[in-house]
Amino acid sequence: MTRVFNFSAGPAVLPQEVLQQAAEEMLDWHGSGMSVMEMSHRGKEFISIYEAAERDLRDLLGVPGNYRILFLQGGGIGENAIVPLNLVGRKSQPAVVDFVNTGSWSSKSIKEAKKYCQVNVAASSEAQKFTAIPPRESWKLSRNAAYVHICTNETIDGVEFQYTPDIAADTDGAPLVADMSSHILSREIDVSKYGVIFGGAQKNIGPAGLTLVIVRDDLIGQALPICPSAFDWKLVADNNSMYNTPPTYAIYIAGLVFQWLKRQGGVKAMEQRNIAKAALLYDYLDSTGFYSNNIAKESRSRMNVPFFLKDETLNEAFLAGAKERNLLQLKGHKSVGGMRASIYNAMPVEGVQALVDYLKEFEKKHG
Ligand SMILES: *Cc1c(COP(=O)(O)O)cnc(C)c1O
């Protein structure tokens, strides 16, 4: 068996230990004689899996007691509708929602929200081709916004918030909503600074099909009447994420990933490793004219690193050589072009080192 270094943006690499444990437990979970996939979501076995996953996630992120953790389906794209359906009802209609447009994913969120509210783009880096997070001082927030939406890590463009924006002075208590799909659990955050945090699992947590929502108590219970019941946070919260059948196997794998993260020393230790991994790659890209990354240094993502070869006619040869070395999924997103290396929590430093070694080797041959 050969395991490759998988630089996919998502679904993405998972810790090998987790996959091994899941394989060992596949046919018979803890003497139950069943696979987790075959269990009732209301049985005591699955409830124990669910409760452990919830508890471990709460520990890892330091989620305060006045926040609920919901395990949903629908992905990050689903939340682009589910969030307004749950939050715009707090204001008289049509409500205004503020967005900061930092790349492809916030642009998608804006487009979807327009079905449910008036959108105010408080700041945008579109004119700079999304190569930097617009400075907080430049945001034109609406005092009466129902909420303020940001995407804290733009998976496609490769920009990341390196701080939590403070919006209290410019709004009448609008909650900050963050799409953290592609960097949740990669760095320490202060959950209490946010009203809602959401993320699809397939980037940095586990299998596709699971979506996490962390929401402050007082923001639950004001869904618009047209909100689908399965996505009404109050119904979901009151039923401990079992209003409808949750994605049970994905929750189980996410739970194993949470246990793995704890064994690694938790989010703080992971963040130190992610800083080191990102530095290894960016430092090399910056040291040569053969490759480039054009993101403003203070906005560079630690998770998704887009880069270009100076001579783009070499792109195919670059990818073919990478594949020979078991370095996979390095082709950039079609909207940006070039290359992209996604180096999530589960990408070991050895993988990043192997990529840097290959970058050097390829440059030597073609530079
Ligand atoms: C991948 C991603 C999404 C979309 O997730 P889906 O599960 O495909 O709906 C949304 N936001 C961000 C930041 C992402 O990286």
Secondary structure layout plus pairing:
Elements: E1 5-6, H1 16-24, H2 44-61, E2 67-72, H3 75-87, E3 96-101, H4 104-113, E4 118-124, E5 148-151, E6 153-154, E7 159-160, E8 176-179, E9 196-200, E10 211-216, H5 233-238, H6 248-263, H7 266-286, E11 291-292, E12 304-309, H8 315-324, E13 327-328, E14 339-342, H9 349-366
Parallel strand pairs: 1-13, 3-4, 3-5, 5-8, 8-9
Antiparallel strand pairs: 2-10, 6-7, 9-10, 11-12, 12-14
Helix pairs in contact: 1-6, 2-6, 3-4, 7-9
The chain binds pyridoxal-5'-phosphate.
Which tags fit this structure?
alpha/beta, 3-stranded antiparallel β-sheet, 2 domains, 367 residues, 14 strands, Aspartate Aminotransferase, domain 2, 7-stranded mixed β-sheet, Aspartate Aminotransferase, domain 1, single chain, 9 helices, binds pyridoxal-5'-phosphate
Describe this structure in words.
By secondary structure, this protein is an alpha/beta fold. It folds into 2 domains: 17-263, Type I PLP-dependent aspartate aminotransferase-like (Major domain) (Aspartate Aminotransferase, domain 2, 3-Layer(aba) Sandwich), CATH 3.40.640.10; 266-366, Aspartate Aminotransferase, domain 1, CATH 3.90.1150. It has 9 helices and 14 strands. The chain has helices spanning 16-24, 44-61, 75-87, 104-113, 233-238, 248-263, 266-286, 315-324, 349-366, and strands spanning 5-6, 67-72, 96-101, 118-124, 148-151, 153-154, 159-160, 176-179, 196-200, 211-216, 291-292, 304-309, 327-328, 339-342. Helix 2 packs across helix 6, helix 3 (75-87) packs across helix 4 and helix 7 (266-286) runs parallel beside helix 9 (349-366). The model has no long low-confidence stretch (mean pLDDT 97). It binds pyridoxal-5'-phosphate.
